[in-house]
Structures are given as C-alpha cells and as structure tokens.
Amino acid sequence: MENASSGYAHPELLVESTWLAEHLDDTGVTVIDCDSVERYRRAHISSAVGLPVHHYLKAQTEDPRDYGSHVMGPDAFSELIGGLGVNGNGVIVLYDDAGGLNAARVWWVMNYYGLHSVKLLNGGWGKWIAEQKPISVIEPQVSATTYMPVTNPDYLCTLDYALDHVGDERVIFWDVRSQSEWTGENTRGNQRSGHIPGAVHLEWLNFITNDLQKTFKPAQEMRVLLSEAGVFPDREVITY
Questions:
Q1: Can you list the domains of the chain with their CATH numbers?
Q2: Which end of the chain is less crowded, N or C, counting CB atoms within 10 A of the terminal residue's CB?
Q3: What is the pTM of this model?
C-alpha cells in the first residue's frame, strides 16, 4: 500500500493501483467512486460503490442547484456513509477522474468525521484505465451499516479563527485556486472576489503530473514548489 521510497511525510495516505487491484475483493476494503453518479454508472472500478451525492458533501439547501456553504451535518453524513456500507472498521479507497480533486474533498470530510483509514488512489480512474485494470458497469449490492461520526475540529478552520489570524506571521493562508480566482478576474459568481490579505498562492494542479494519469508529483518536487511559494512546514497552514 505504501511506497517507502516516495519521500512523502505520510505515504500511507496514497494507494497505488497495483495494490488496489490485488485487494479489490477483500472484505475489509471499500472503494468509493467520487465522480458524478452519471460517470459512475457508465463504468467504474470493479466492486466500487458510487457516491450518491455531490463530492462536496455539503449541507442541503432548498435550491437543489446550490451545494451550500458548510459541510453536511453528522446525521446526514452517518446516513450517507452507512448506505455505502462503511462502518469505520476497514480501509476506504477513494478515486475520481479529476486529478484527485473530488476524492480529496471526500477524504477531508471523512477525516473531519473521524474516519482515518481513508486513502486516495494515486492516478485515479485515468491511471486505472490506462493500465487496463478491472472495470464494471454493475453496481455492487452492499449491506447498510451504522457509523456514528465523531467530529474532529482540527480538520476545520472556522471563519472567526481565520479572521483572528489574518496578519499573524505564525499562520500561512494558502490559496490553492486558479490564477484568475486569485487575482479576482474570475468571480465564480460570488459577490466579492480576490483573496485573503497576506495569503500565498499556489494552485493545486501544480502537484499533479501533466499527463493522462495525473499522479502526484515526487515529494521533493512538491517541497521545492511549496518553499518557493512561501509555504513552510514549521508554520500553521490554512488552505482554501
């Protein structure tokens, strides 16, 4: 599962396609497709279950087109995860076809609610397909389970906390959005645009290889990018 020579601080957060292919049928492994339901139903990794909601996992609003501003509550999360057959005892592997963008969001929410044996499939769907590993159009039948979420506040920065630390030299605000969002040229439909004062900018795509497989770049290359952008390991880092 882990690549000891990767140089990552936490290599256990990633799973390689070779390992997953060997453990697809393990009872203690749950694979979750984090793309849209439509994409999942066209084809997915064999034995994978589909995420029935948007990967933001946000609180539902009256407008079905609006994903809201906050992560879904513990009751909604419990119902979602239980319906996928997750009880918190096994390994969860997440993947997408978006360079890890969708899967990483789901990874964060799961950790926020106390699920820590969660991995990202390095390269996701693109690498899996390129290697001609097993796929299916059949949706597996899973038995509903019960998972009681335990909120971990360390994974969440509140607005009040952020406001109190703007200008604090011990805290780095790292803007991972696109260049046009950073400059304010792209408003994404928001009433205000731009970035948090004093923040540094390094788009998340810089950490993904620029090819069809979209795997994470080597650790040393990432460290250089972070250092040049002003993101240092001895500081508290808040991403947005």
A1: 11-151 (3.40.250.10), 157-239 (3.40.250.10)
A2: C
A3: 0.93
